[in-house]
Amino acid sequence: MFTIGAHLSINKGFENIGLESLSIDANTFQFFPRSPRGGNAKPLDPEDVNALEKLMNETTMDVILAHAPYIINLASKSEKTRANAFAIFEDDLKRLDQLPNNMYNFHPGSHVKQGADKGIELIIESLNKLLREDQKTTVLLETMAGKGTEIGRNFEELRAILDGVELQDKIGVCLDTCHVYDGGYDIVNDLDGVIDDFDSIIGLDNLMAIHINDSKFGLNSHKDRHETIGNGKIGLNAITEIINHEKLRDLPFYLETPNDVEGYKNEIALLRGLYNE
């Protein structure tokens, strides 16, 4: 089964975002559990959560993906910034455990000129306090484009974080096609080689989701600017290969392209037409 969805707003509630997803022929979705700029999150409505669970049980709706606020930086040299990131992360995990079948994706953070090794050390320290044996939600590290002092610019940095995490069954990786291409991994001309590198360094058993995006600026640009499917530097041929690759095709795919709901509907129709059932 091809699992594909888009990033949608939960302002109208989880049941409605599930119904909206189904209306555009999606069978999953990504969402922000609070504002992408941080701030307080609204309490979850138990009836709404139960309605979402019922919808997921009665349809093909698969694992859903929460995206952490962009403001989170567990690698910051500022204790105040790290403490704020920790508090948001901790609260999100507690709230997400009330939802059915979900994962929590986050940008590893920026070391802010401390050096990647120090940033990675700080991320590991926080994750080992945040992750709990009883949590249901799997946390995903996202591959990054490498702008500024971002951590996660290469597979080795993500491997270093994974190696330091004590609860290995609570963490995995989300691969963003725009980010890895912008970061220097040539998924257009050498997709097999990139997948082999990922497998040898991180392990494909740790890959749990894919952000399927085109790239506005392209290979080695380190710009992190997403483009609509087929209209960027990655292009439709390479994206077709990605969604059909034997080592990737069974993963859930999430669109983060610059689109409205109608645009996502068109992209999902396009990708479903290109997917080899």
Any descriptors?
9 helices, alpha/beta, 277 residues, two-stranded antiparallel ribbon, eight-stranded parallel beta barrel
What does this structure look like?
The protein is α/β, with parallel strands linked by helices and 277 residues long. The protein is 39% helix and 14% strand. The chain contains 9 helices and 10 strands. It has helices at 14-23, 46-58, 79-96, 116-130, 155-164, 177-182, 191-201, 235-244, 261-274; strands spanning 4-7, 28-31, 64-67, 102-106, 138-142, 171-176, 207-211, 214-215, 226-227, 253-255. An 8-stranded parallel β-barrel has the order 1-2-3-4-5-6-7-10. A two-stranded antiparallel ribbon has the order 8-9. Helix 4 packs across helix 5. The protein is globular, with a radius of gyration of 18 Å. The model has no long low-confidence stretch (mean pLDDT 97).
Q: Which segments are poorly predicted (pLDDT under 50) over 5 or more consecutive residues?
A: none
Largest sheet: 8 strands, parallel, barrel
Radius of gyration: 18 Å
- Strand order within the widest sheet? 1-2-3-4-5-6-7-10
- General shape: globular
Helix content: 25-40%
Structural class estimated from helices and strands: alpha/beta
Mean pLDDT: 97
CA-CA gap between termini: 7 Å
What fraction strand? Answer: 5-15%
Describe the oligomeric state of these chains in a short phrase: single chain
Order of helices and strands: EHEHEHEHEHEHHEEEHEH
How many strand elements? 10
Helix segment tally: 9
